[in-house]
Design goal:
The structure is a single chain. The protein is an alpha/beta fold. The chain contains eleven helices and 14 strands. The protein has helices at residues 12-24, 55-65, 78-83, 85-106, 139-158, 184-195, 213-225, 246-254, 268-275, 284-290, 298-318; strands spanning 4-7, 30-34, 47-49, 69-72, 109-111, 114-115, 162-163, 165-167, 169-171, 197-200, 208-212, 237-238, 242-244, 261-264. It has a six-stranded parallel beta sheet with strand order 3-2-1-4-5-7, with helices on both faces. The chain has a three-stranded parallel beta sheet with strand order 6-8-12. It has a three-stranded mixed beta sheet with strand order 9-11-13.
Length: 319
């Protein structure tokens, strides 16, 4: 990777990925792009307004910066996508198609994240295999399965170096929640620090795989730097880190904030989405093909999240 473009750079993953890439490579070699305009609080560095559904815009920025690697993160997340299925298809699939076409013409490598949302009710729920039934019941899930297949197609048909992982729910203190079904696992920390109380929109025993953002960033970079000769799957690797329920997360937070209380007001739409996903996934393929290994579990993630989010909120209050 010599010149990198990150789409969706102001989103939940992009905000931290851009920082990590600029620390690892030359800062000016990493171009951030989004359909939003960065604020004074966003990290400085090259930025371009790019609507990924516009082929010309993607093509122009790739040529302008002589990009050789694209981290394509621009997408609508699960809950938002379910409310706007047509827009979700146009952005999630239309944007990916445009990026892959530019990558084919300009010989770029592409990282495109999939999700546990690519699975569905007929998928084995426990230790979901790398290769298994994928029949999602949401538009978000449909676009993720189609995206996995499209990336595979561009690799086998055109030789585009496409790679990707299936992310579980992601937890971060840097960017606010972006409309995902697992957003409770981010919102809970904000309300725990501010109010010592949180109302969860999922049932207390909803078990899902989760991942702290530093591990999610590590997975993306490690996979793109991996020896391609070892990659049998290339796209849509299962990756896992922590596995817990809302009740378990609340109890872990109570170890640090004893007065914290959890209440429940279940959102039927997001609960249905969560119920269609696996309870846990098997990431042995990622571990064997590119040595995937997470650094954070529930305990270490909770401790780090509370510490850093408290500092962030205190700083914002002073501004």
């Amino acid at each position: 990777m010599k010149r990198i473009l990150v789409t969706g750079a102001l989103g939940q993953i992009g905000a931290e990925l851009v920082l990590a890439l600029r620390e690892r490579y030359e800062p000016d070699a990493v171009v951030a792009s989004d359909i939003r305009i960065p604020t004074d609080r966003d990290p400085p560095g090259p930025f371009e307004y790019v609507d990924c559904t516009e082929l010309r815009q993607v093509k122009e920025v790739v040529r302008k910066y002589d990009v050789d690697t694209i981290f394509h993160l621009a997408a609508l997340l699960s809950a938002v996508a379910e409310g706007k299925p047509r827009v979700a298809w146009e952005v999630n699939m239309g944007g990916l198609y445009k990026v892959l076409e530019v990558a084919r013409e300009s010989h770029c490598a592409v990282f495109h994240p999939s999700s546990i949302g690519a699975f569905g009710p007929s998928t084995p729920r426990m230790s979901t295999p790398q290769d298994t039934i994928q029949r999602p019941t949401t538009m978000y899930g449909v676009t993720k399965v189609a995206g996995e297949l499209l990336c595979d197609y561009y690799y086998h048909r055109f030789g585009v170096d496409t790679r990707g992982v299936r992310y579980p729910g992601l937890i971060s203190y840097v960017a606010p929640p972006g409309g995902g079904t697992t957003d409770y696992a981010v919102e809970i920390f904000y309300d725990a620090i501010r109010n010592q109380r949180y109302t969860c929109f999922l049932k207390s025993d909803t078990c899902l795989d989760m991942m702290y953002m530093p591990d999610a960033i590590k997975a993306a970079i490690d996979l793109m730097e991996a020896d391609p000769s070892r990659l049998e799957h290339r796209n849509a690797f299962n990756v896992a880190a922590a596995n817990f329920t809302p009740d378990a997360l609340a109890k872990e937070i109570q170890k640090h904030i004893p007065d914290f209380q959890m209440e429940y007001d279940v959102d039927p739409v997001r609960q249905d989405i969560a119920d269609s996903w696996p309870d846990s996934i098997d990431d042995s393929a990622a571990r064997s093909e590119w040595d995937w290994a997470p650094s954070y579990d529930l305990e270490s993630m909770t401790r780090d999240m509370l510490e850093n989010l408290a500092k962030k909120l205190k700083k914002e209050k002073r501004l």
